TrEMBL record:
Membrane among keywords: yes
InterPro entries named in the record: ABC_transp_permease
Topology versus the membrane: Multi-pass membrane protein
GO cellular component: plasma membrane
Name of this chain's protein: Ribose transport system permease protein
GO MF assignments: transmembrane transporter activity
Amino acid sequence: MNRNIARKLTSILLLLLMIAVFSVQTPLFFTVNNLSSILREASFVGIIACGMTFVIITGGIDISVGSTMALCAMVCSNLLRFTGAPLAAVLAVTALLGLALGFVNGLLVTKLNIPDFIVTLATMNIYRGLTRAINATDVESLKNPMIKNASFKLLGGRIGLIYLVVIAFFVLVLVSHYLLRHTRLGLYTYAVGSNAQAARLTGISFAGIKIFAFAFTGLACGIAGIMTAARMMTATTEIGVGMEFNVIAAIVIGGCSLQGGRGDMTGTLIGTLLMAVINSGIVQIGISTYYQPVIKGGIILAAVLFDIFYANYSKRQPGSKAKRGKTAD
């Protein structure tokens, strides 16, 4: 069985198992309101995961996403509270800010040839520091922290039982899926992640693909920041703390390889939903929140070990590419 299919089937079965277990443990879990809330929480992580999937497929990583989201949310909140600018303009500026922050990450990675982890570790602290600096110099925030814009408030609400952030998430999933599977951009993204040197030799712009992946992730962070500010009708300096961990966990569980070259939006969607179900379930059955990072870390480790095990298992099978290559030698 194909490794991607095996991982997805495993994730789907685990998702169904978790829903069944938590539903038995607490009758409030499998209710319309709770499932709606789970979808909403999944969507904030999922929106960013749509962008980060591109980065990870190229063989990169972006741990600055939580700070990028926070800075975008803070700027969006302040623009709405103090400038009187039209809502459409504020939303556009915030989204473009996210895109620009991601673009900076991509530029530093490709032009200065610094590892993705080091660059985004630095910008994670820079962007978080800027968020806190803006808040610290904003004396009015202490007196009047709330956004008073009825139209903006609608973005944080819902239509019937479906929150608008959920709609935004699924729209972005569809857009990302189309880009990955039905465009030359997606083909080049996989090529860069599979073999960067070979991709360069065929004329693919390695730098261009990497910069796009980071910029698209930044744009996704901007959208998530807007939706977070709309939900809270304010912004705090601690928005998005630890978000990068949830995003990476969701993507890896969905079958995206941290080595690059493999992954898709279907897997990211499944992984995002699975993480949201686990987060909600462990809280409802009374497991201390202190153990949540332990559980998430264990899930990531299990997913990576599964990937390694399956790769080694496949190589040992008769007719595998590795065996054929060895025989030819």
